[in-house]
Recover the amino acids of this structure.
């Protein structure tokens, strides 16, 4: 916490660098969620290696973001790590192996810092593999070129188009760091308070990209049920690619009614689940949250029976 405070106050433009890093992660997950939804919409699960590597990138990104969220040692960071540490106690000594002890302490921050540095390197390697299999097997979106005679060189048209988009994103992150025009990307103010093991907050509010999983943990009465539900939501992404063996595949020129009515309502339902993650737990919220989680499972289950390619 003192190191973060020193960067923010004593280093020239240190506050900007730290906020740029934080908001860069938010934009990273924002585009990743859009990419996953696009892949589901265009049945990218018919490209198994691309989909599997993408799921690995997603899971590793969540792990990297979580350990990075714990590093500032703020109030929300400490108690968020405590909640996850409580879940790992069901795996025997895994809690001590990862956290360095039974509770969150200085050893936890040291290990999480190392993990936060190592995991992005692993993600980079998986991204390279993801791009390789994508170029080897092709893409499922309508812009994919099927006729080899229609393929054109990456430079200069596509290259400059990508560079233009990257520059726009870099500028957006800079504007967000200076003005904070996207309120949902802002961290909870309580995380600017030094962690206090004796002062439990009313409820924990993690970063917005972790709200889906935290809400899943929150709406179930026991830790085991919440952990299984969270793992089940990730497993549904894997089942989507395995369902290519038994689902009906239809033409790209037609809109599959079941596919459309299952994928379109999934977006607002996920927004509802994320909003529940920011609310204080009570009986009515648990009932609503359980219905929302079941709706997510139902819509994704319907996607297993249909495809749009």
């Amino acid at each position: 916490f003192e190191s973060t405070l020193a960067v923010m106050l004593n280093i020239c433009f240190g506050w900007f660098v730290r906020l740029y890093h934080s908001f860069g992660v938010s934009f990273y997950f924002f585009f990743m969620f859009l990419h996953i939804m696009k892949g589901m919409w265009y049945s990218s699960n018919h490209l198994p290696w691309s989909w599997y590597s993408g799921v690995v990138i997603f899971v590793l990104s969540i792990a990297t973001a979580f350990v990075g969220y714990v590093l500032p040692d703020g109030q929300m960071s400490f108690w968020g790590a405590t909640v996850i540490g409580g879940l790992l106690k069901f795996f025997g000594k895994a809690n001590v192996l990862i956290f360095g002890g039974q509770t969150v302490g200085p050893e936890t921050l040291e290990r999480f810092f190392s993990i936060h540095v190592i995991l992005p390197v692993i993600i980079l390697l998986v991204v390279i593999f993801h791009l390789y299999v994508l170029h080897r097997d092709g893409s499922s979106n309508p812009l994919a070129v099927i006729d080899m005679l229609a393929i054109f060189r990456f430079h200069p048209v596509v290259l400059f188009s990508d560079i233009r988009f990257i520059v726009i994103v870099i500028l957006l992150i800079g504007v967000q760091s200076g003005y904070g025009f996207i309120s949902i990307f802002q961290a909870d103010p309580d995380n600017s308070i030094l962690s206090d093991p004796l002062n439990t907050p009313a409820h924990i509010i993690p970063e917005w990209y972790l709200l889906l999983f935290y809400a899943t943990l929150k709406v179930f009465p026991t830790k085991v049920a919440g952990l299984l539900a969270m793992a089940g939501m990730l497993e549904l992404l894997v089942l989507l690619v395995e369902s290519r063996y038994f689902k009906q595949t239809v033409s790209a020129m037609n809109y599959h009614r079941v596919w459309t009515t299952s994928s379109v309502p999934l977006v607002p339902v996920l927004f509802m689940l994320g909003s529940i993650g920011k609310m204080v737990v009570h009986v009515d919220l648990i009932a609503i949250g359980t219905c929302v989680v079941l709706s997510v499972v139902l819509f994704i289950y319907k996607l297993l029976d249909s495809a749009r390619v």
Residues 154 and 160 are 9 Å apart (CA to CA).
